[in-house]
Amino acid sequence: MISIRVSKYDLKYRDENGFYQREEWISYYDIGREFWGEVLTEEQYLAVENSYLNVIRMLYEIYPSLVLHINGLELFDEDDDRWHENDAITQDGVDRLARAILREELWCKLIDDNVEVHFGYDYYMYIVFKQNYTIRTIIDIYKSIDKNGLFIEHIISPYLEDEDEED
């Protein structure tokens, strides 16, 4: 298993303990607020959000038969009936769901036998390669992350279920 954390946070601003040292926007709801003397615009936000979506789309290229399933669904609006636990999310539907997660409309993990995508607080995304990955798979996803201006850290997702708990 390989687990990585993907984020918009430049690693050069982490201290020796890994803590991020700059004040940054962390949410869709920060649009219009000022960070480092500049107001976050919707266009700037969307550029970063689209970078995350591009990385998720790359997973569908790496695994052509990939069908992610919703796991651990938490709806923040009880009237939201767009998604349900165990729904299958194909490449055509992943953008809409991932945007909703990144915009804090709901939370869930996206899981498949080969890979999982988890979303954390403060605009972190975790990708967990569970099986059927190769060095080429990892290189391709790293290239996609880099090409999209995002950063990689080798951190185990805190949203992984303990295998012993599944029994």
What is shown here, in short?
This protein has 167 residues and is α+β, with helices and mostly antiparallel strands.
Query: Proportion of β residues?
Result: 15-25%
Largest beta-sheet details: 7 strands, antiparallel
Could you give the order of strands across the largest sheet?
5-4-6-7-8-1-9
Shape: globular
Work out the number of β strands.
9
Which H/E pattern describes the elements?
Answer: EEEHEEHEEEHE
- The Cα radius of gyration reads 16 Å
Quote the distance from N terminus to C terminus: 20 Å
Number of helix segments? 3
- What is the structural class? alpha+beta
Query: Overall pLDDT, averaged?
Result: 93
Total count of domains:
1
Low-confidence stretches: 163-167
Descriptive overview:
This protein has helices at 42-62, 91-102, 135-147; strands at residues 2-7, 34-35, 38-39, 68-75, 88-89, 106-111, 115-120, 124-129, 151-153. By secondary structure, it is an alpha+beta fold. It has one domain (2-14, 42-76, 83-157). The strands form two sheets. Strands 5-4-6-7-8-1-9 form a seven-stranded antiparallel beta sheet. Strands 2-3 form a two-stranded antiparallel ribbon. Strand 6 and strand 7 (115-120) form a beta hairpin. It is globular.
